[in-house]
Amino acid sequence: MSTRRHVLVGGGVAAAATATHLRKHGFDGEIVLVGDEPQPPYERPPLSKDFLLGTTEFEEFQVRPPAWYDEQSVDLRVGIRVTAIDVPGRSVTLSTGERLGYDGLVLATGVRPRRLPGFDGDRVHYLRTAADSQRLRAQLAESERVVVIGAGFIGCEVAAAAVGLGKQVTIFDPAPTPLARVLGATIGSVMTGIHRSRGVQIRAGEYISELRHTGDGMLLTSNLGHRVECDLVVVGIGCEPNVELAAEAGLATDGGIVVDEYGRTSAPDIYAAGDVAAQYHPVYGRTIRVEHHDNALRQGANVALNLTGSAEPFAEAHWFWSDQYEHSLQSVGRPADLEDLVIRGSLEDHDFSAFSLVDGRIQAVISLNRPRDVLEVRRMLFAPHEVTAEQLRDESVPLKRLIPRSPWATARA
Amino acid sequence: MSSAITGQWQEAMHLDDLWEGEMEGVEIDGKKVLLVNIDGEVRAYKNRCPHQAWALDEGDFDGQTITCVRHMWTFDALSGKGTNPDNCELITYPCRVEEDGTILVDVR
Q: Contact, B74 vs B89, CB < 8 A?
């Protein structure tokens, strides 16, 4: 009797979640987890926050302790890449030259930071891996003036951490309001205000057009002709999905590895999960790629279900958080229009939830320091409900009361 | 993870103030304690999420599961074991309910 073997490509939380859930669902064949980083899978959120601050150690955010892989008979191959997939031959080639046959193949190859041409060198940082974060942490310790290029989540979180370490921080972003692309102008302005009140210089509508290395630092020139000297640059301008392996094997890609609601790619027995997967979402009726921790965990777990024979579509709500200073920013759902939000609470007090509401249904909520609201919306988001903007604004109406009580309404926990 | 019973029971609350399906944060001997009533079974945990030490009483309890709202970690309220992620556990304090409904907790 031959043993079945599932090969999981990518050493992040999606692959680790697949491994965990394959065992949970009773799969007793071989599991090979191949990751190109030197460490076993770990969580990435702390890399731009606590890990930079030095308040958490690497061991604390490993997905599983190293011994777990032995205990669960998960063959962990770290520091190794998969270089090719032979679809008809149902096998992969590793960077070691070894060929591995598979019954199921999961591509969880993640994303890589988008690079700015010409922005390289010892003092220029891109942040994705633990090694990136370690290098940044070490250099932050001996730097004073930090420039962050790109006011997205990574840029803002790094800025918050650097300020926490007593650094002078300047953020450049070509958009008029930082974070507006993901949070809308109203909340983007609130977040801008928080950073400014902590001493971060925010140069909105301005970008760096030239970087020159000097003897002991860098001289940056902006598109407006302003010059800034600094010791360290962090570039956080988004990511690109690692689709090459899949594309070269002839799998369908379109801004990610294209998968259906079961995580299946265009090739038989090959799945994709996590940041790299552009997945058809049955609730939204379209293909969406999500770069968030929670989504990677859930998709990884879902693929394990489908590999063990219980076909379950992935129909989860998208949830994420971003911790900046003492503030907890969270969101669930997909906003219809970021410039049309119903505010519950106070923007000034940094204590609010902003709802995207269409025809009486909540599409999404973005909360600052109101994580309970996010939890409650997460439960009702895909369940039938009807609310008005007035009810949402009125804090005397508990959100809980808006959750449908009818027995046929399946509230998602 | 459980603390050993030292026999130093201290009054935490009265059962009348902790209904089934409720949780409540209290302070006992300088320690933050979370009391939970699961269908009449009372448990006492350290009121800190093992993830980032967030106060659990600010979270959610649906009768079975405690959710830390900071990053949505969930715990089985009866056992204190993590359900998502499943490789963590709340710190348990010995806890018992007297006949008159006084909830006693041993935090030493």
A: no
Which of A20, A63, A372 has its CB closest to that of B69? A372
The dihedral built from the CA positions of residue A55, A141, A188 and A285, taken in this order, carries a sign that is negative
CA atoms within 13 Å, Cβ hemisphere of B63: 3
Helix (H, G, I), strand (E, B), or coil: what is residue A138?
helix
Give the rounded percent of residues in chain A with a pLDDT score beyond 90: 90
* Mean local confidence (pLDDT), A353-365: 97
pLDDT, position A412: 40
3-state SS record for A328-348: EEEEEECCCCCCCCEEEEECC
Contacts of A320 in chain B (CB under 8 A): none
B65 contacts on A by Cβ (under 8 Å): 413
Q: What angle do CA A276, A280, A281 make, to 5 degrees?
A: 110
Cα separation of A165 and A143, whole Å? 10
- Whether residue B53 lies within 8 A of chain A, CB to CB, comes out as no
With bands split at pLDDT 50, 70 and 90, how would you rate the model's confidence at B1? low
Query: Residue-wise over A54-78: b if at least 16 C-beta within 10 A, else e?
Result: eeeeeeebbbbeeebbeeeebbbbb
For residue A68, which residues of chain B lie inside 8 Å, CB to CB?
A: 87
Q: Are A53 and A47 in contact (CB under 8 A)?
A: no
Q: Which of A293, A373, A325, A367 is nearest to B59 (CA)?
A: A373
Domain B9-102 annotated CATH 1.20.950.20: no
pLDDT value at residue A404:
61
Positive or negative: CA dihedral B70, B74, B76, B82: negative
Predicted-complex ipTM score: 0.73
The CA distances from residue B51 to A21, A165, A174, B30, B87, in Å, are 21, 22, 36, 21, 11
Contact by Cβ (8 Å): A248, A83: no
Distance, CA of B9 to CA of A368 (rounded, Å): 40
**Of residues B59, B71, B86, nearest to A321 (C-beta):** B71
Mean pLDDT of all residues in B57-71: 91
Residue A410 is predicted with a pLDDT of 45
Q: Which pTM value belongs to this model?
A: 0.90
Size of interface A-B (CB pairs under 8 A): 25
Query: Tens digit of pLDDT for each residue in A181-202?
Result: 899 999 999 999 999 999 999 9
